[in-house]
């Protein structure tokens, strides 16, 4: 048996080649589980750099099982782990944006720290996750939406998942999902739960390459745009990164506290999402409109946030998003 290699000391900053080799060794099982555990804990304690985030994401991209996607496809995805246990905003946004004729390759997983992840809630709405995975390319082409269950596309992560569970705290792999979409989308709306990490994450995505993506984080540590206060936004394009601030007022929406969109288990979140798509007004609708407007800016189909809110509201009020969900469930 070939002996395991030693990972570098994460108390030091890594050069790109060193970081790339470390994550290749982790994902290709050339490092022991104990070594990986110690490495991830120490790296998190020190704070991950742009170089390390980009290297880890590239290592995952190099090993994923891809699907084909139409031109202009986007992803709307959060890193999770914000601890606010809100209703499924990015899942609802994905349906609304897809109903606006923007193909959405939704990358997601089951709940890790929340009560209901995207996969849990979609399943409670009637989506057969196994069939949705098998038909992902077809539904993306035919309906303009698919769900890419992370476990189906990242076999290298199978060995890492128990290590992450054993660690029981956030590691660099909590940041990886949005950066390793199997559809290889070039436009993304990514929510992260750490506002201070927006510049680091944005520079990593710029290094990896994108046509137009936006990194967002609510000041409360929300991995989506928050209606409660301010939000950090990084606009990432080939020419560089621009930083902005935005609030609900910029989109013509009212302020709501985070508690107004507090979620529950998958069944509860599914009921609330269905009511939203059937036209119910309130804080949840406003949160979805706010984030959908940002996603439509990413897709390049609107020029302003109020225009995006109007477009998203029309997709809901005409029943288009609800009909899309019904077609998807029945596919």
From TrEMBL:
One Gene Ontology term from the biological process aspect of the record: L-tryptophan biosynthetic process
InterPro entries with a match to the protein in the record: Anthranilate_Pribosyl_Tfrase (IPR005940), Glycosyl_Trfase_fam3 (IPR000312), Glycosyl_Trfase_fam3_N_dom (IPR017459), Glycosyl_Trfase_fam3_N_dom_sf (IPR036320), Nuc_phospho_transferase (IPR035902)
Residues annotated as binding Mg(2+) 2: 223-224
Domain called Glycosyl transferase family 3 N-terminal: residue spans: 16-63
GO molecular function, one term: magnesium ion binding
Keywords of the record: Amino-acid biosynthesis, Aromatic amino acid biosynthesis, Glycosyltransferase, Magnesium, Metal-binding, Transferase, Tryptophan biosynthesis
Job description of the protein: Catalyzes the transfer of the phosphoribosyl group of 5-phosphorylribose-1-pyrophosphate (PRPP) to anthranilate to yield N-(5'-phosphoribosyl)-anthranilate (PRA).
Name used for this protein in its record: Anthranilate phosphoribosyltransferase
Species this chain originates from: Sphingorhabdus wooponensis
Classification lineage: Bacteria, Pseudomonadati, Pseudomonadota, Alphaproteobacteria, Sphingomonadales
